[in-house]
Design a protein that fits this description.
Layout: H1 4-33, H2 38-46, H3 51-65
Length: 67
């Protein structure tokens, strides 16, 4: 099992590679400043996605990751 520190470092690397340093800092600042419910955020994010679409996206993601 990976340590929390390892996971946090990998997450930061992902954010920085996708958003860049400045936008990563903005993202983190907003998370810390605003009350944030991850479960509710994900629920709203996927409300309009059908089960078939979700499954297709998951399968495609795995294929692209080499899993």
């Amino acid at each position: 099992m990976r340590t929390t520190n390892t996971i946090m470092n990998e997450a930061m690397d992902c954010l920085i590679s996708k958003l860049g340093v400045v936008e990563t800092e903005i993202f983190i600042s907003n998370l810390m400043r605003e009350p944030f419910d991850y479960t509710e955020w994900q629920r709203k994010k996927f409300d309009n996605v059908s089960l078939d679409e979700f499954c297709d996206n998951a399968v495609n993601y795995c294929k692209n990751q080499g899993n």
